[in-house]
Amino acid sequence: MFGFLEKLRQSGVVGMNQRNADFILRYNKRSLYPLVDDKLRTKYLATASGIAVPELYGVIEIQHDVASFPDIVKDHEDFVIKPAHGSGGNGICVITGRLNNRYRQSNGDLLTEEDIEYHVSNILSGLYSLGGQPDQALIEYRVKFDPLFETVSYRGVPDIRTIVFRGIPVACMVRLPTRMSDGKANLHQGAVGAGIDLMTGRTTHAIWQNYPIEQHPDTGATISGLAIPHWYKLLTLAAQCHDLVGLGYLGVDVVLDRELGPLVLELNARPGLSIQIANRRGMSRLLEKIAKLEEIPAAAADRATLGQELFLENQT
Amino acid sequence: MRKLHLYLLAFILCLAGLGLAYYKAAVIGLPLTASEEAQVWNIEARISFRAKPDSAIKVTLPLPFNPAGYSILDEDFVSADYGLAIEQDNTGRVARWAKRRAQGKQLLFYRAVLFENEEVAPKSDAAPVYPKPPEYPENLAPVIQGVLDKARQQSADTISFTQRVIEQLNAAASIPELKLLVKHVSRTRNLAKTLSWVLAGARIPSRVIRGLRLQDDKDYADLEHFLQVYDGEQWRTLNIKDGQEGLPSNFIIWQIDDDRSFSIEGASESGIQYSVARTLQETVNIAGFRSAEKGSHLMDFSLYSLPVHTQNVYKVLLMVPLGALVVVFMRNIIGIRTFGTFMPILIALAFRETELFWGLILFSLIVGLGLLLRAYVEQLKLLLVPRLAAVLTMVVLLMAGVSVIMHKLGFEMGLSVALFPMVIMTMTIERMSLTWEEAGPAEAFKQVSGSLLVAVIGYLAMNISEFQYMFFVFPELLLVLLAVILLLGRYSGYRLMELWRFRAFARNKP
């Protein structure tokens, strides 16, 4: 066991305690958390600085307004309902279409208007929010993901998670929903995570339930070697998000829309550590190197390049 | 820099905590373990009687008054709604209970806890006044004179004189001349008083002392009487039955020359029983008593200065930080996931009352039934807060139901289910059913068993009686605990569970 401990340390894996003590507590100011914990504020901030996000159809803030739900979605065939303060993908309801008076959910279930309104009520009363405080429900554009991922996802929307440290992209992975994750893109709920080479934007290894895999468990398609389009643009976008909220240690979730390109889905002040397993590479050496940097380029594009350079250095 | 600050702070806390504890243990002499116990005597006087209708009740009971060689650690009166007055003067102390009206059988208790304390010396008595010979009744005067004359012939000093008198009076029944005196004795029912009265005829100062022999598990119907005579220098004690000198060992003197005795007005079938039992008590209790007795303020600022009820509360509260340390350790070093941060401690506190086995059973029962009901309520599509309130109501009803059913089935432990923190139970049910829905039953069970595991370990840690004792007597040790928690707060190494999580790294070299 101690040999393994040594191996872990050598591979530079960041543990939960180190993440909390050395990075989150030190680089993320508490006062900035609301900017990312409230997806509505993130969305407004992003829109104001010209960062592409899924279009907001409407917000339901109080119980009384739940009745206005049909009004908000009347012009949209499909949409997503999510809590403004949700975490871990909980409380997100994806409607892919309609059938008569019912709404078809991404997993194929048909929901009545009452079902959806109950879900919205639950969101408002804080069922999915971090501290259980009253919440808001966001109704927004449903991303039509890039055909690239068609073969490697089972329902739901795959997204690309980037860890951005002091504005520099450090590690990326693409999270692919599975039958087990019920369309959600969270690894602990059963989604597949695939590491990405920061230089080329190609997927490398994949893990599922902490085990390395080659093929998607539901579709059987090979996961590695997929080239993600707009890669450099995507990295720059992630780096830009640092300027948006000022958090030193940030997780950026981006989705690729087949028409609109990369859209920032949400930001995370406490991004998870599984990204290291997906990349089969610990982050701690890279993070420590960046922590020691005295000067960091101001332009997001330069930081994206710096991230690629550091990634290459760390490879060898 | 930040690390140095932390280490320095932890060091100072440790130093302060350990230093203060060392001072209290070494200099003040507080025992380090609870096992250091001293023997104490519990004395109980149980008064029972039947109240006469329509008459006021007055009960008089003499109480021990600065008994030589003993200290009264604690005493209390159990007397329901009787008025109680304690009168104290130079000769002694009595308790007077009174009630205007009572019905049926009545019980009154006096309890005292005594410990042997050589430092309490017998009161040095001033030389008594030599009594004048009393005016004996005409028919008794010659008899008594005969007794005294006979004793004088057969004795050399006050003691032997008294012993002769005692012998004669004890043998009085078989001596025809003394029949009258015997009658008198049996009328007053008090040999010791009679002796004293007879001795006064020879101008010998004497007095009656009353008390109890302290023997474990003994009951007495009355206090035992001894006679003391003054031999010109000091009071000497004589047994009134055989004239032997000296008090038995372990004898507590209740009253000295105090005529007031146990009496009841307005009652019938009255009786009194004195019970003696020996128990052990923590030395620390006696140490506190002693230091207070000596006028030291040492224990004034300890938790022992609080009322007993509050003390018991603190005995529990002081263990909570230890439970918190267990939670910190289990979460940050081991990496076990729990429902809520400190929910396991609250469950562990409930386990203290229910005992572990029943605690686990009752917890599983309530949470299991709660989950079923929660699943039913789910269909009604209630808003969050009303739903929580509904689940809470059902949890309370479940607890009441479990208590009643267990009681009927004869499992008395079922009653302690009421000690579970119901709000915490409700939140556990709610969060568990959410986790169940979102992450599946496996994850829900993983978290609930993690919580229970931490609760059990916390319970076991908090139930170590050595720790309970140490933290109560040396609360400053909590500073050391605080230092440990602070240091753990900067632990940034791997958690034990992460070795499993990142096991993929073990297979392929980076």
Describe the structure.
The complex is a heterodimer of chains A (316) and B (510). Helices cover 31% and strands 23% of the residues of chain A. The model of chain A has no long low-confidence stretch (mean pLDDT 88). Chain A is globular, with a radius of gyration of 19 Å. Chain A has a 7-stranded antiparallel beta sheet. A 6-stranded antiparallel beta sheet of chain A has the order 1-6-2-3-4-5, with helices on both faces. Chain A has 2 domains: 12-37 and 146-315, 2-Layer Sandwich (D-amino Acid Aminotransferase, Chain A, domain 1); 55-140, Dna Ligase, domain 1, CATH 3.30.1490. Chain A has helices spanning 2-10, 16-27, 33-37, 39-48, 69-73, 113-124, 231-245, 274-279, 284-292, 300-315, and strands spanning 56-60, 79-83, 93-99, 102-105, 110-111, 137-140, 159-165, 168-176, 192-196, 203-208, 211-213, 249-257, 261-268. Chain A starts with a helix and ends with a helix. With 316 residues, chain A is an alpha+beta fold. The mean pLDDT of chain B is 81. Helix content of chain B is 47%, strand content 20%. Chain B is of the alpha+beta class. Chain B has a 5-stranded antiparallel beta sheet, with helices on one face. In chain B, helix 9 (343-354) crosses helix 10 (356-378), helix 9 (343-354) packs across helix 12 and helix 11 (384-409) crosses helix 12 (422-462). Chain B is built from 16 helices and 13 strands. Chain B folds into 3 domains: 37-129 and 205-297; 138-204; 313-475, no CATH class. The relative contact order of chain B is 0.12. Classes of the chains: A alpha+beta (316), B alpha+beta (510). Chains A and B meet through helix 1, helix 2 and helix 6 of A and helix 12, helix 15 and helix 16 of B.
